[in-house]
Structure formats: C-alpha cells, structure tokens
Task: inverse folding
C-alpha cells in the first residue's frame, strides 16, 4: 500500500457532486440506486437525493481487521433494505471506491442473479485505485497508485462510545 491520502468533508462532497454531474452527462436513466454499505452509503445517499431516485442498501463486508484496513473474505448480505418491492429496470450500484475491485466484481453478478428484472447495472465510485481488477462505469478520480484513502468518517473507526462520552464530558 502506498501513502495515505486524507480527504475532508468538503472535498468528499465535491467528489460526490462531480460524480452526480458525470452520471447526468451520460444521459443514462436508472430506476434505483443501490448503495454498498458501509463505504458507499454517503455517496449513494447524495446521488439518491440529487437524482430523486429511491435508495436501496446492500451490506457487504471485507475490511474487518485492523480497524477496517485489512481486506478479508467478501461477505454479501442476503437481502437489500429498500422501500420498493423489488429492483427492476436499470440500476446504479454505488460504492466509495474500487480498491482491489473484488466487491463490485462480485456484487454486480449477484444483484443480476437475485433480481432478474434488472435490465442493466452500472457502477459508480469516487475513486479507482491502480490495482483494481474492476473498471467502474463512472469514476471521479482514477488514481495512478494505491494510496489508503482516509475518508472523513473513518475517524469513528478508532473510537468507541466510552471515549466519546469521556471527551465530551457526557455520561
């Protein structure tokens, strides 16, 4: 892994807005947004609000060790959390980034298998690392290397509730 790259909230939301503009410029229309939790939740939420498209959540997990910095075996939840009865038509699958690419590489065919009424599934991310084996349809920054991107919400990976209460003098 290369150096760390720190991203603040302002830059994060600018990237989300740039991703929205890139998707809009493609003139592709979609019926649902599926956000991959946890990393893709915020970007998917922004896109859902901007495009006024329903948001579904799919939980996956592969980064569990070392405060979420070491990749292990990919787990994909067996169900989606959504208001719609099912997914159908064109679907946009959103994650924060493609690191190895394994998550999106496995998730796209899994969604198509579970929801046969999906006609197309495109992918959108903020960052694509050089080592990725998967090329997303939409990406704001294609990186020439593989830095660990420290996103603003990762601050909470190092905290627990006792520390928060102590720091805030709350109990």
Result:
């Amino acid at each position: 892994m290369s150096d760390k790259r720190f991203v603040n909230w302002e830059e994060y939301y600018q990237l989300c807005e740039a991703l929205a503009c890139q998707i809009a410029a493609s003139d592709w229309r979609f019926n649902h947004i599926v956000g991959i939790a946890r990393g893709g939740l915020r970007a998917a939420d922004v896109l859902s609000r901007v495009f006024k498209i329903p948001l579904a959540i799919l939980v996956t997990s592969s980064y569990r060790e070392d405060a979420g910095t070491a990749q292990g075996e990919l787990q994909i939840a067996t169900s989606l959390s959504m208001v719609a009865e099912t997914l159908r038509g064109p679907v946009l699958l959103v994650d924060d980034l493609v690191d190895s690419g394994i998550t999106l590489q496995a998730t796209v065919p899994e969604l198509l298998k579970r929801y046969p009424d999906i006609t197309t599934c495109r992918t959108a991310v903020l960052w694509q690392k050089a080592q990725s084996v998967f090329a997303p349809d939409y990406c704001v920054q294609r990186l020439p290397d593989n830095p660990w991107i420290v996103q603003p919400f990762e601050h909470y990976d190092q905290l627990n509730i006792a520390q928060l209460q102590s720091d805030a003098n709350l109990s």
